[in-house]
Amino acid sequence: MASKIFMGNMPELMEKILENLNNEVSSLHSCALVSRHWCKMSIPLLWQDPFSFNRKSSLITNYFSSLCEDEKFFLKKRVINVEFSKTLFDYARFLKVIDLDDLESIVLRWISDIANEFHGILSALKSQKQSLREVKIEYCEYSTEFNVLSKCENLETLRLKICDYSVLNTIDYKISTLEIIDTPIEAKPIESFLKKSGTLLQRLKIEFDYAWEESETLLLNAIKSFCPNLKYLSIIFILFSAELLELIGSLQKLQFLTLMLRDDKMSEEESEIRYKEFVEILPITLQYLDLTNTRQNSYLDVWLNNCSAPLKRLLIDGLDNEKQTQALIEFCKRKRTLNCVGVSKYSELNDIIKKEVEMYVTLVLSEYIVIDC
After folding, report:
1. Torsion-angle region of 181 (φ positive above 0: left; ψ -120 to 50: alpha; else: beta)
2. What Pfam families does this protein's entry cite (predicted)?
3. Where are the beta strands (DSSP E) in 125-238?
4. What distance in Å separates the CA atoms of residue 60 and residue 66, rounded to the nearest whole number?
5. Cβ distance 318 to 347 under 8 Å?
6. Which end of the chain is least crowded, N or C, by CB within 10 Å?
């Protein structure tokens, strides 16, 4: 397909582009589909081959140097602090919204900010119904155009952030990865979707700022009832309840667990008992545990002294006292499986403590070893 420069209405252009991908998908190297700013800056790049593009071409140089100050500022605010005279090859790095990572399997990733900006684009995905593997939708209201997802039976991953849950109703088949970030969480539609995905679901991430206790109970019971084969579970801002304990204890294939608990009304003594009960029921398959939360870190010694799981990676906030330090060292000696501990407050670690612990395990900044959904 010949290289072209497009200027015009983004939805119309993207509809044509997606409809033609079926025949010449290898022509598409990078594409953005988020906002009007991205649209204007990405369209001239869509049909260029970054690996054969002449670095001294005046075409791209002139294009980026012609951007207005607002558009340059938009890029710089997103840590793309670059000279606007660089070539397409350099700029292709940040065009990741529709991202064909592997052109052999055609893993198509898609994200959008505003529903009005992708009018017509969703329906154009019908030509990609066999190749679409992952969909990421952010800040979108439901539209009937989402019904095209019901045709994408090879979809494996669905990620929703602050979206209308009606999107879940358009998918009648099973997926293996589900991520939902919202505030507050609505348990009922998620429960129905979990029932559909059932035993095939292996990776689940639920993140919210607050929720009614009844909704949490419904959600936890749904995960326990319908998703016994989870290998990855991340629940952010959950109440430390009996239902949570029952769920974790039931997941006998769980390998990765991220847990952030919100404050409750339990006394210190009650919390210590509950934490002890929790670590005692962790499955023996668990290799990764993320406890980077100030409340949880206060009971780190309780976690470690009672944990039997053969952890390989542990993420914590810090080592605040000698009791926690010794608990970590004793865990390393006892299990002999832990090879790395991520510390979110790594810069605050006492040098003496660091030297003492690193005789048994490597300490790094948490973000270096975090595993996301």
Report:
1. beta
2. F-box-like
3. 134-138, 157-161, 177-182, 203-208, 232-238
4. 10
5. no
6. N
